[in-house]
Amino acid sequence: IWVTPKHCHLCRLPDNTALKQQELPTHRLHFSAKKVLFIFFATGIFCLCMGIILLLSAKSTQEIEINYTKICANCAKVRENAFNFDKECTCSIPFSLTKKMKGNVYMYYKLYGFYQNLYRYVRSRSNRQLVGKDVKAVKSCAPFKMFHNETPIVPCGAIANSIFNDTIILSYNVNSSLQIQVPMLKTGLTWWTDAYVKFQNPKADNLANAFKGTTKPPNWQKPIYELDKEDPGNNGFLNDDFIVWMRTAAFPTFKKLYRHLNRTQHFTAGLPAGNYSFNITYNFPVTRFHGKKSVVLCTTTWSGGSSLYIGIAYTVTGAITWLAAFSMMAIHMGLKNKKMPIIHQSNEALKEKAENRNGQ
């Protein structure tokens, strides 16, 4: 059937259905003042209760932070001299726990004044390289793409080049004559999506052969395939310390998970009270950019760590919601009181008219 131009407008008509003809049944919500106030007060109570619970939960965690920027100042001077790049410098920091740290204990490193959120810094990486598809894909890694414009850098980019590389060992003084190393696990630190989706080693029987024809970043002491020779599952791009560092922080002060306690021998219930020491191999310089660094030991609860942010957010939201509810209730009561005399006068006027009609 041919449609002539005269009747062409008929071909553009929508189908005769309830949806296309906009004939679906509708429902318009009408909330009374009481329902609105009830919703606001209920939401405020919920947020306030959750905020208080989260704050109490965060306060119940135990945390100890030791800033070793100044304590290891001698090592900082040694490491920041380019001629001492191959010299190792260690420092020991004794401390004591007055209370037992029960349950799972986590060790973090914390940096102050390190901006991982700069645009060029965040973009300086190769996701194609990190998922193992092409180890020589360095196009987006400026300024750390090639070594002397010849050999591709793996892993390339500014993020990988600036990896935190201090070595931190925790020791426990069982008594005055016996000191043991606290067993710490260096795996299980990453998000599932990072370890199984965003980071993958190239497919090869020998990891060293997979990275053949590449070189390590300038600030690294060893290549990517030697990060953990003892555990193949924690080597190369799958190394937990590397993956944790590559997830950039939003603020200049941040902490990242470094180790967690292996609850065996003396530490089945956590870290007992007593004397400890951190033995730190100093590699990561911070004094050049006036930064600081710390090591943190802390426990967690069902709601997470010691951060008060979520609890404060809930509490503030609940307080604002209640303030808004009281304000709306006051406005509603004020308008209601103003309407009462008007309604009363109109009722009296109607009564007078009715009486006059009856009198006639």
Automatic annotation (TrEMBL):
Keyword Ligase found: no
Lineage: Eukaryota, Metazoa, Chordata, Craniata, Vertebrata
Membrane-spanning segments: 36-58, 308-331
GO biological process, one term: phospholipid translocation
Family that this chain belongs to: Belongs to the CDC50/LEM3 family.
InterPro entries according to UniProt: CDC50/LEM3_fam (IPR005045)
Compartment(s) of residence: Membrane
Coarse class of the protein's main subcellular location: membrane
Keywords linked to the UniProt accession: Glycoprotein, Membrane, Transmembrane, Transmembrane helix
Cellular component per GO, a single term: Golgi apparatus
Pfam families (alphabetical): CDC50
Protein name: Cell cycle control protein
